[in-house]
Every structure is written in C-alpha cells, then in structure tokens.
C-alpha cells in the first residue's frame, strides 16, 4: 500500500497567522478610533464644540445637534449641555431637595424678615448654550441653579419685597410679588440663556411670631368690619324694602279710593244723564199714556167740568218747547251713541209709543199716577 507524505511549510503558515493577527489589531484600533472620535448627543441636550488648537481656539458659537457627532479628539472637544426643563426647590424641609435648609429669606418695606420655600422651573436656550458654557465653564446646569440662579432669585425677591408692606406680602399682594420677581428674573437671567418657565412660593410664608399675630389680628378686625358693614347693608335694604312696601300699599289704597270715587261719580253722572233724557223724552202724551196705564178704572166721586182728572194735562206749562226739547234730547242721545249705548231718538213727540216708551226709568223720574178716589155709596 502506497503512502502519501504530507509536508509542512513553516513560512506559509506563519504568514497567514500574521495576517489574521494584523486584521484583528486593525479592527481593535478602528474600534478605539471610532470610540475616541464619535460621541452621541442625547435628546434634550446640545453638543458644544470646543477648539483646542489652531487660530479659532475656544468655544464655537454654533451648537452641535443631537445624535452621533464625529470630531478630532486631538484638536476638538464636544461638551453635552442639557436644554430640557430643570426643576429646583429651595426649601427648609429635609424631606424635599437637600437635607439642609435652602429656603430664601427676604425683607419687606418695614424691614420684617420673611422666609419662604421657593420653587423654580427653567430651561436653557439652545442658541445661547455656548455662551453660557463659555462664561461659567460648567456643563451641569443644576450646579449653576444652586449658585448663580439662586443668588439672582434671592436678590430679586429682596429688591421687589423692599417696596411692599409686610401685610401686603402676606395677603393679597403675594401673587403680585411672584409676578414681579418672575419678570425681574427673565430680565436678568435671559441674557445668559435662562428661560424662566415658572416661579412659585411653596406653602405659607414664615414671619416672626409677633408680626404674624399682629397681621392675623388686623385681618380678623378687617373681616369683622366687613361683616358688620354687610349687616348694616342688609338692615338698610330690609328697611328700604319695608318703606317701599308701605308706599306701595298706600299708593294702592289711594288709587283704589280714587277708583271707587270715580266709579261713584260716573254712576251719578250716568243717573243724572238718564234722568235728563227721561225728562226730555216725557211729553204730555206720554204722561197721559202713563196715567191711563196706571188708572184702575174708577172715577172719582167729585169732579169739575167735562174732563177726567189725571187724564189730561196742560202741556203749555212745560219749560221747553218741542223744538228745544228735541234738540237737547238729540245731543244727549248722540253722546250715548259715542259710548255704545242704544237709546231711541224720537223725531217728534208722537214717536214715543207705548212700545218705545222708557219702562226702566226710576220711579222718581216719572210722575206717579195718583190713585182715583174710591166711589162713595
């Protein structure tokens, strides 16, 4: 059986191994190079490029956007600077913020010290981030907040509060104090890129005990005065209401009395007018008809002449002649027509027949027919 001889060339195997080692070294070097020249800028941050060499050494004005950024680590440096909203609280409580007392104290117009817990929300303008870093050389904005920003807040509170009375600060002027301090901070810190989102006074203001008691007594007296004034207004309103009701009752009674008087007067005028119409419309013929209508048919025992008593009348004794009486009657009836009253208008004395003669006239208006004397036996 033939055998095959395998030969081993040390030169060729050594070259392959070197190539493999060199490739691995290149990959490792490339990894180190990429790690040194690439930097990731997270969301809510901007990358500030700093030139370390050359004629343009220093902070560059144009910030680097977020994401992966390549730079030369030998001549450049990338600083990640936060621009998201930051919240800080300076309080005396050990359960919030730091364990030390970080509350802010300021003085009022009278020189009374007022202590308070202050909360601040702010963020950095991305366009001014290089300027802020160049000025303070501090990429941690919370460090700036505890130092530079806190001093600015305390100074603004002292400046604004020094022109306000302590009672105003403790009462309704608290909101005005916060608004004015916020405006002052926007003016002072805005040039450095700080944008103030919200400034708050957390909790109640802390005053010296004697001052707090004096203010509370003054507020209580003010509240009592307001309540007393409200009671006075209520009593005055009730009195005015009673007076108005009394006036209204008196006016109603007066108008009711006037209405009743007017009604009596109207009825009296109507009765007088009705009597006048009956008087003018009652002629001798009508009177004779009424006398005949009321006669019981018995003749008196004694009579003179050939005329029946009470059946004939002397019409010459009437005060008005027929023409004047008819004219006056027409005028009265014309007034009645304007008031929607239906009253007959006779054209001559004979127009009043038994059918049209007024039958509803009052008994006092028509002369009563005297009863004929009883015949004697």
Give the low-pLDDT segments: 341-377
**What is the number of helices?**
8
Calculate the terminal CA-CA distance, rounded to whole Å: 207 Å
Q: The CATH topology of the domain at 86-207, please?
A: Tetrahydropterin Synthase, Chain A
Strand content: 15-25%
Give the beta-strand count: 9
Question: Mind telling me which CATH architecture of the domain at 86-207 this is?
Answer: 2-Layer Sandwich
Q: Biggest sheet, open or closed, and with what strands and sense?
A: 4 strands, antiparallel
The CATH superfamily of the domain at 86-207 appears as Band 7 domain
Secondary structure layout plus pairing:
Elements: H1 10-37, E1 38-41, E2 45-51, E3 58-59, E4 67-70, E5 76-82, E6 86-90, E7 104-107, E8 113-124, H2 129-136, H3 141-161, H4 166-170, H5 174-189, E9 194-206, H6 209-281, H7 284-294, H8 322-338
Helix pairs in contact: 3-5, 6-8
Please give a structural write-up.
The chain has 377 residues and is of the alpha+beta class. Among the domains are: 22-82, no CATH class; 86-207, Band 7 domain (Tetrahydropterin Synthase, Chain A, 2-Layer Sandwich), CATH 3.30.479.30. Helices cover 47% and strands 15% of the residues. It contains eight helices and nine strands. It has helices at 10-37, 129-136, 141-161, 166-170, 174-189, 209-281, 284-294, 322-338; strands at 38-41, 45-51, 58-59, 67-70, 76-82, 86-90, 104-107, 113-124, 194-206. Strands 6, 7, 8 and 9 form a four-stranded antiparallel sheet that branches. Strand 7 (104-107) and strand 8 form a beta hairpin. Helix 3 (141-161) crosses helix 5. The protein starts with 9 loop residues before the first helix and ends in a 39-residue tail after the last helix. The relative contact order is 0.06.
